[in-house]
Design brief:
This protein has 96 residues and is an alpha+beta fold. It has one domain (1-14, 38-96). Helices cover 27% and strands 15% of the residues. The chain contains 3 helices and 4 strands; from the N terminus they run E-E-E-H-H-H-E. It has helices at residues 39-50, 52-55, 79-88; strands spanning 2-3, 22-26, 32-36, 90-91. The protein has a two-stranded antiparallel sheet with strand order 1-4. A hairpin with a 5-residue loop joins strand 2 (22-26) and strand 3 (32-36). The model has no long low-confidence stretch (mean pLDDT 75).
Length: 96
């Protein structure tokens, strides 16, 4: 089967650049201004929105239902591989 978590990548730039995520930070005069999120913070947002429900906040999954991501060969294979799994899902059996 295909495991995509119903993630829809249509809103992403087809060239691979995600839209810049912004958060409010204190500006020079004490007011708020927008700042881009770090890649780490953007990744946390993507994980929270698309993966955490099944794979849990700690990445350990649910035994017998959802495989662990923490320390898995699927998540330690580099950022390009992980990005493709998030965008396209994972096909075939998953061996733990």
């Amino acid at each position: 089967g295909r495991y995509s978590g119903n993630f829809i990548g249509g809103g992403l730039d087809p060239l691979g650049a995600p839209p810049p995520a912004k958060k409010a930070v204190a500006g020079p005069g004490g007011g708020e201004q927008a700042a881009e999120l770090s890649p780490h913070d953007r990744g946390k947002k993507v994980f929270s929105a698309n993966c955490q429900t099944c794979h849990q906040a700690n990445g350990q999954g649910v035994p017998g239902q959802y495989p662990p991501l923490a320390g898995s060969e699927f998540t330690t294979g580099g950022s390009q591989r992980m990005g493709m799994i998030v965008l396209k899902g994972l096909q075939g059996p998953v061996r733990l």
